[in-house]
Amino acid sequence: MNLASFWLDRLSRAVDAAMIALVPLLVALTFALVLARYFFSAGSIAAQEAGLWMHSLIFMLGAAGTLRADKHVRVDVWQQRQSPRVQAWIDLLGHALLLLPFAVFMGWISFDYVAASWSIAESSREPGGLPGVYLLKAVIPLTAALLLLQSLCEIIKRLQQLASLREPGA
């Protein structure tokens, strides 16, 4: 189980590194678009869409890494007052009963949507927009898969944590 957890975490870290590299590019592109619009009265639909694409990639592909780093949104009002063992159980059940089914549903429900986009090689509806919108839509099931894998990794970690927190004499 340690080996699986190690490789799943490593995959998540690699995706995170790529998404972190996109952040300064997105900031620079946004800055350039603002300068072009307000100082030169110029704009580019493709560049604006590129910014939207980068933003989408950062959030969608960064979700699993956020989960790995335990920086996701959660309500800790009750959990933080519990023992480490109870906290591990809450996390384990949350992943098994909530996140795993959500990730499976997200992947399943997006399949036809993405397949339809690929079948027509969907591109931007805007004149001068980016081609290959189907590539961006393909990130939806990829996000689901990454969340599923990271959730499995977190389940493995919680099982290991619970095993190490066994009550003395048990």
From TrEMBL:
TM region(s), chain numbering: 20-40, 52-69, 89-111, 131-149
Tripartite ATP-independent periplasmic transporters DctQ component domain span: 26-160
Organism for this UniProt entry: Pseudomarimonas arenosa
Oligomer status and interactors: The complex comprises the extracytoplasmic solute receptor protein and the two transmembrane proteins.
Topology term for the membrane: Multi-pass membrane protein
Family: Belongs to the TRAP transporter small permease family.
Localization: Cell inner membrane
Keywords attached to this entry: Cell inner membrane, Cell membrane, Membrane, Transmembrane, Transmembrane helix, Transport
Name of the protein described by the UniProt record: TRAP transporter small permease protein
Source domain of life: Bacteria
Any one GO cellular component localisation term in the record: plasma membrane
